[in-house]
Backbone:
C-alpha cells in the first residue's frame, strides 16, 4: 500500500486476555517504530526496529509487551494479560534510514480498550 | 537524554487570528526538532523540521517555526488561522541526525481549536 497500515483499527478486549496488533510499513522502509498514545500523555516510545539490527526495546513498559518484525517488513506488537492501563492508541511509524529528512510516516493507529 | 515541553493542552483562536503553539526542548547535544500534526481520526503527519540549517523553518499549510538556541525553543506559528487547522499538534526532538536511528521524543501535544 501507499502508507503505513495498521490492524485492527479498534480492539476491545477483556482484562487478562492477550492481544496482537499488526503494522505493515511502507514498502522499502527499513526502520519501524511503535508508539503508544494515551489521553493527555502524548506519544510514548515503545520499540524500534532497524533492518537486521537488534531492536531498541528501551520503551517497553513491562515484560507483558513484546514485538517482532518478520522478514524486515510486517511487525506485530503483542500485549499479554492485558490490564486496563494498557488502553490507548498504539501507533506504528516507518522511515527510510537512507533518507536525510528524518520524517516518520505514521499509520492511523490501533485503538485498544481493555474492559 | 532529550525532552520536550509543550505548555498547556488546549489553545483556542478565532479564524484569521495568529496561531502560536509553544515548544521548549532539552537536549545535551544540538537537537533536531520536528512539529507533527494529527487531524481527527488520522495518523500524524510532518508539518516541518529543523535540522541545523536555517533557523526559520517553513512547513506545510502556512506554518513556520523558529529555532532559538538561547531560549531552547521551537515555537510554531501561523499568521492567520483557518478552520481546517483544528487538530492536535506535537513537538518532537531527536538527538541524532535524521536517518540515523531517529527515535523521536514527543511532547504531550496541544489541541488547537479555531472559532468561526
Residues:
Amino acid at each position: 500500500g501507499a502508507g503505513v497500515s495498521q490492524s485492527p483499527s479498534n480492539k476491545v478486549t477483556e482484562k487478562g486476555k492477550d492481544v496482537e496488533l499488526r503494522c505493515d510499513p511502507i514498502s522499502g522502509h527499513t526502520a519501524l517504530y511503535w508508539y503508544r498514545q494515551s489521553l493527555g500523555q502524548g506519544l510514548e516510545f515503545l520499540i524500534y526496529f532497524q533492518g537486521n539490527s537488534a531492536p531498541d526495546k528501551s520503551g517497553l513498559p513491562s515484560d507483558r509487551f513484546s514485538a517482532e518484525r518478520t522478514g524486515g517488513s510486517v511487525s506485530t506488537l503483542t500485549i499479554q494479560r492485558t490490564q486496563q492501563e494498557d488502553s490507548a492508541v498504539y501507533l506504528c511509524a516507518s522511515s527510510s534510514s537512507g533518507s536525510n529528512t528524518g520524517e516518520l510516516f505514521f499509520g492511523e493507529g490501533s485503538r485498544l480498550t481493555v474492559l | 537524554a532529550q525532552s520536550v515541553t509543550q505548555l498547556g493542552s488546549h489553545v483556542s483562536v478565532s479564524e484569521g487570528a495568529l496561531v502560536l503553539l509553544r515548544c521548549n526542548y532539552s537536549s545535551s547535544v544540538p537537537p533536531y526538532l520536528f512539529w507533527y500534526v494529527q487531524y481527527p481520526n488520522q495518523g500524524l503527519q510532518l508539518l516541518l523540521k529543523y535540522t541545523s540549517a536555517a533557523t526559520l523553518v517553513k512547513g506545510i499549510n502556512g506554518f513556520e517555526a523558529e529555532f532559538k538556541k538561547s531560549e531552547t525553543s521551537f515555537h510554531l506559528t501561523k499568521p492567520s488561522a483557518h478552520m481546517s487547522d483544528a487538530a492536535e499538534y506535537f513537538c518532537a526532538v531527536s538527538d541524532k541526525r535524521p536517518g540515523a536511528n531517529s527515535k523521536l521524543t514527543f511532547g504531550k501535544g496541544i489541541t488547537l481549536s479555531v472559532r468561526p
User: Anything to note?
Assistant: Chain A touches chain B through 30 residues (CB under 8 Å).
